[in-house]
Amino acid sequence: MPAYIIVDVDIQDAVLYEEYKKLTPASLTTYGGKFIVRGAETETLEGNWQPGRFVILEFPSLAAAKKWWNSPEYAPAKAIRQKTANTNMIVVNGYAG
Length: 97
Known about the structure:
Elements: E1 3-11, H1 14-28, E2 34-38, E3 53-59, H2 62-69, H3 75-84, E4 85-93
Antiparallel strand pairs: 1-3, 1-4, 2-3
Helix pairs in contact: 1-3
């Protein structure tokens, strides 16, 4: 069952955040991850949620998604993101029935 990492990013340092954007794609491949949404414009239909930069990643499984997030391949990019942005990130299984 696929799993998705959903991310809402409030970028604080746009210049350095560009390095994060360059490093992240290569870190996904080992874990079967791919971008479904990457920085596209959002529109709030209900509630008060006003996401910043919005990203959805797809992985073949929940285990693969978690392995990527904890991986040495992603660690350098993650460190940059954590320095340059405030992030809300969740992981969810694709279908629960």
